[in-house]
């Protein structure tokens, strides 16, 4: 006589392995249920392929003899195993490539230590009557004006740069205001206005800083630019 075990089977013939992997232990006293045992097997240390095989074998052992799994179901389960195993290998390969690329970028970036560079920012420092900054133009401009303001947001100097081509435009300030008076050394702010035809828009300003160090990061090498902060290699618009 064949006993029907369908009522106690946590993995029915139609239940996918993905459900078994997410199964939670039954909250019952005494001997652990089959669902709890399968859940523990899914969380046992080891590779994903071993866990899937254990679950598949357990599912086949506990299937209903009167309603066994057909070939299509077994093939589907094996396809899941193959897919997950392949994804794990691809992820491992991509991580290895990413780590190698990050290390290579960090090594290359060490050559920038001690050099000045322009990065996105609105800060401009005046020291000994000299200051350097920049503007990044996404397209050519009929005219470019750079506005320099003090810490209280008062306009100090307007630099008329004239017509400019697309790209990075270096900006040099002699430290004087619009009346010719020399300003005190310190931190100032810059902004830019671009005119193309009758339309005037803002432009991306660039701050000047020195690369103090390089550190590898999850997104690639990070450049320490002192008080300006940390920047990616892609953020460097020009090395000076």
Tell how many strands the DSSP assignment holds: 13
**Mean pLDDT across every amino acid position:** 77
Which of globular, elongated, flat, extended, rod-shaped describes the shape? elongated
CATH architecture of the largest domain: Sandwich
Secondary structure category: alpha+beta
Overall number of structural domains? 2
Biggest sheet strand line-up = 6-3-9-1-13
Approximate strand percentage: 25-35%
Terminal Cα span: 88 Å
Layout of secondary structure:
Blueprint: H1 17-21, H2 34-43, H3 48-61, H4 71-109, E1 116-120, E2 123-126, E3 131-137, E4 141-149, E5 155-164, E6 167-173, E7 186-196, E8 199-202, E9 204-210, E10 213-217, E11 220-224, E12 230-232, E13 238-239
Antiparallel strand pairs: 1-9, 1-13, 2-7, 3-6, 3-9, 4-5, 4-7, 7-8, 10-11, 11-12
Helix pairs in contact: 2-3, 3-4
Task: Describe this entry's structure for a reader.
There is one protein chain. The protein is α+β, with helices and mostly antiparallel strands. Helices cover 28% and strands 33% of the residues. The protein has 4 helices and 13 strands. The protein has a 5-stranded antiparallel beta sheet, with no helix packed on it. A hairpin with a 2-residue loop joins strand 10 and strand 11 (220-224). Helix 2 packs antiparallel against helix 3 (48-61) and helix 3 packs antiparallel against helix 4. The longest helix is centred in the middle third of the chain and has 39 residues, at 71-109. Residues 1-14 and 20-46 have low confidence and may be disordered.
